[in-house]
Amino acid sequence: MNNRIVICGGGLMGLSVAYNLAKRGVKELFLFERNCIGSHNSSRVNTGLFVSPMFYSEPSLRSVARKSLNIYNELAATGAFEFNKCGRVYLSSTDESETQARRLLTRLVTDPSSSFQVEAIDCPSEMLARWPMLATEDVKLAVFSPLDATIDVSGLSRILADNCREMGVQIFENCSIKKVLINEESRVYAVDTDEGFIDVMAFVDAAGIDSSLVDVLGLPDADHPVRIAAHPCSFTFLSTDPLPHCQSSSQSQPVFVCMDENTFICPLKTKTICGGFTMEGGDLQALPPSSQTSKGSVTEWHMPTPVWDNFRIILRHLIDRCPELAQLSRGELMTSAEMYTPDMKPLIGESDQAKGFFLATGLNGQGVSFAGGLGSVLAEWILSGSSSIPVDKLELTRFLPLHSNPHYLYLRVPEIAFNTPKNPLSSHQCHTARNLRTSPIHHSLRDAGAVFAEIMGYERPLWYNTASHFDQDSDGPRLPRPSNFSGEDQLIGKPKWFPLVSKEYSTCRERVGLIDMTSFSKFDIQGADVVPLLQRLCSGNIDCPVGT
């Protein structure tokens, strides 16, 4: 029986999948990297920032990050790479960000696996005494998360590769995968590489930003590749000299995150890495293709060169928060890219288009935090057919075909890159690439004051706000206000929509309410046992005459 598994990609994700499969006893493992191991790790650019598992509000992401932490702790015991548990400080300067910081604080202090001391400081002078390089007069709250770390990603990639080789994994560097072949039963059966053909049981696409570029032959719909709802987006970081306070201090400094400015500062003894995310200035860009086939398929991405003018907004925020940065003599602006998904969660699992075709990509700039854990989850999935932890919110099949549309992704991913450091709630609504699917009476609902939310690409009314449907300039005409809701409710206090929904509820209860059900699933069930089935499934009595 053929038990060969081929992995495409020699970054952290691909190496983690190979490492976890080999630990589970798989003998015929082949990993292909078209350059050198770890050469395209975007996580290497930002000094391998590992985020504490409790940062994530989504339980499945916490479980994945915790698995990663356990794997890195095991590997760090060998002393082969730097794993600096320096911690992270979240700085909040507004009431809104303070609420988010206190939510994070609650998760951190209730973490049963942590023996480290979580701290919350609400005195600016105490913050300044502890971190004298910062301007803290406007900071309302600082939360110290002790499990955050910086990791030598190159060293981690090297030790993962060494462990894989010791367990029998065959690693091919400077060797590309040309094609993945699918048979008539829609199953992967072979891979064509620079080293020749390999018959396989499974293929794992963990090629990072090149995941969507893998050529797959034999799909039922030959004109469309494997659907991957992810697209690369570039971001910019500044690497500069170490801060004076870091050079004079014997202790390592934590990573500082300014929640309101969406910036971070990573002060190391040898250098300082800092950056941020903004929708202004053109700093975040979805990557355009640099070359395409005759059918329009992308074969390579165009990586933009860093532009100081695009970085100026972020740089101003960084200097305002850390004035010492302005005193440093030199700095190098660097650009890298990551794969981002429409809902800010990774893509993992088996494609519904080709059996045996597995995917692990779309880590949304959190590659170090997720790679180890996702490798463990996917290895278990490949060998047993399922995962021991619930990852339904991470499965690639959660998306519809329309979410893989290149134009949609091109518009959406810069906003995802901007929001990822904020860890928004699952109810968060984006403002880009909206109105994918609408009801036939969408315009009538909008004119009636509907405020819409996107659910699986469908615009559905959240509430109706007829009083504020129009914005009127003092000297201009009455203009329709945007009807798509974006952002999220803070879930604290009385929401702004409460009186609107209360009025709607009263109308439905006391009079008549008309609800547009277009976006809801409808099933036509037929057969001799349809009544017993529905009597079991439905709360109401189905066994009654038609029309009653």
Automatic annotation (TrEMBL):
InterPro entries: FAD-dep_OxRdtase, FAD/NAD-bd_sf, GCVT_N, TrmE/GcvT-like. Signal peptide: none annotated. Residues 4-381 form the FAD dependent oxidoreductase domain. One of its GO terms (cellular component) is mitochondrial matrix. Pfam families: DAO, GCV_T. Residues 441-547 form the GCVT N-terminal domain. This is FAD dependent oxidoreductase domain-containing protein. It comes from Meloidogyne javanica.
